[in-house]
Specification:
Largest interface: A-B, 24 and 23 residues
Radius of gyration of chain B: 13 Å
Oligomer: heterodimer
Shape of chain B: globular
Helix content of chain B: under 10%
Order of helices and strands of chain A: EEEEEEEEEEE
Shape of chain A: globular
Structural class of chain B: mainly beta
Radius of gyration of chain A: 13 Å
Structural class of chain A: mainly beta
Order of helices and strands of chain B: EEEEEEEEEEE
Largest sheet of chain A: 7 strands, mixed
Number of helices of chain B: 0
Number of helices of chain A: 0
Helix content of chain A: under 10%
Chain lengths: 114, 109
């Protein structure tokens, strides 16, 4: 158990809908990272927050957005869902900013868009 | 574009064999090289390598970084069926973690 929690574990929704994935980092970690893992794309970095501020952006679609709250939990919002958004979404946390230190992954949220 | 390539993509060996997994990277602002093991769900951290030529060991697993060759290897000796997993290598840059596609390792009894 890495200490990173994610909810929900599974989510099944229809195309066009909007969902919110939630992540709580390990105690003491200030950085939160979001990743998408699909069968054909592998693990892809989406976005990073450090102490409430956006710090780095990867391959995140405009339909997706994220934020980190004062209590350091983070939410990833996915809207206008398409079939291709079906994937495993991981959150990871680390103590420091900008990749300075290893990242610990949560159990993931499996999103299925039908 | 930042890129991490792992080889082989898939490997099937017998229990007790020794395996070597390869990772090469081409990224800007390289900081460290990380190895993860992914079984059913989340990747679990194995090693972080920052200095070239210094081997890190954990039980039967060891890894080393070659900054000149922009590569790293992960060795597993005396493999066990519990070592079956996908092994991910990732290059840590100033901004993000760039993952390779993974090596699927299968250990047959």
């Amino acid at each position: 158990d890495s200490g990173v929690t994610q909810t929900p574990k599974h989510l099944i929704t229809a195309t066009g809908q909007r969902v919110t994935l939630r992540c709580s980092p390990r105690s003491g970690d200030l950085s939160v990272y979001w990743y998408q893992q699909s069968l054909d794309q592998g693990l892809q970095f989406l976005i990073q927050y450090y102490n409430g501020e956006e710090r780095a952006k990867g391959n995140i679609l405009e339909r997706f957005s994220a934020q980190q709250f004062p209590d350091l939990h983070s939410e990833l919002n996915l809207s206008s869902l398409e079939l291709g958004d079906s994937a495993l979404y991981f959150c990871a946390s680390s103590v420091r900013d900008r990749g300075l230190g290893e990242q610990y992954f949560g159990p993931g949220t499996r999103l299925t868009v039908t | 574009e930042d890129k991490v390539v792992q080889s082989p993509l898939s490997l099937v060996v017998h229990e007790g064999d020794t395996v070597t997994l390869n990772c090469s990277y081409e990224v800007t602002n390289f900081r460290s090289l990380l190895w993860y093991k992914q079984e059913k769900k989340a990747p679990t951290f194995l090693f972080m390598l920052t200095s070239s030529g210094i081997e890190k060991k954990s039980g039967r697993l060891s890894s080393i970084l070659d900054k000149k060759e922009l590569s790293s290897i992960l060795n597993i000796t005396a493999t066990q069926t519990g070592d079956s997993a996908i092994y991910l290598c990732a290059a840590l840059t100033a901004q993000k973690l760039v993952f390779g596609q993974g090596t699927r390792l299968t250990i047959n009894p």
